[in-house]
Design brief:
single chain; 182 residues; mainly beta; Jelly Rolls; globular
């Protein structure tokens, strides 16, 4: 019997971050937050930062995480929206920023995402709190599909997203995870 080539589907990673898909635990990314490509800085408290991602097979969001900088102040919110922005599937609600220069992990109600396209979103309520972030070139921002929404306050996130092409120069380090430990 001749051998046939198996069909492959990409495996879903355990962690989804705005920079791409990471199969390593979020702690690895968090421990590298001080390297040359990531630095702590402030984010706009009137902007929701949204990034597209693709789910290839069912994926259960069980926790979310962000890497805090040295200045802790206010609240943050991480959520998942449908690709048209009309439905919010996951949200932490306004979550007090806690712990300096470290990853902050929050367990959320387990939410199963079916295969498809989604937006992961991040918003903050304080313009002085710091978070690990990447400041890419404008070419990356346009190519990545990063979108923003101007809001009264980034945390809590709005019920729906009204997206516009990003002019933001910061990409916060936050994550969706399929487990509660990292």
């Amino acid at each position: 019997m001749p051998l046939s080539v198996p069909s492959y589907r990409p495996m879903m990673p355990t962690t989804i971050i705005p920079f791409g898909l990471a199969s390593e635990p979020f702690q690895s990314a968090a421990s590298n937050a001080a390297n040359a490509s990531l630095a702590a800085g402030t984010l706009s408290n009137t902007t929701v930062y949204a990034f597209p991602f693709l789910v290839w097979e069912p994926y259960t969001v069980k926790a979310v995480a962000v890497v805090n900088g040295a200045t802790v102040n206010g609240n943050w919110d991480i959520g998942v929206y449908s690709y048209d922005g009309a439905t919010q599937y996951v949200s932490t609600g306004a979550t007090a920023q806690s712990g300096t220069s470290a990853a902050q992990v929050v367990t959320v109600a387990s939410t199963l995402l079916a295969p498809g396209r989604y937006w992961m979103a991040f918003g903050v309520s304080s313009g002085t709190a710091t978070y690990a972030r990447w400041t890419p070139s404008s070419n990356w921002t346009q190519a990545s599909g990063q979108m923003i929404q101007t809001v009264v306050s980034g945390a809590p996130l709005p019920a729906t997203l009204t997206l516009a092409t990003s002019t933001a120069v910061n990409v916060p380090l936050f994550a969706l995870m399929d487990r509660t430990d990292y």
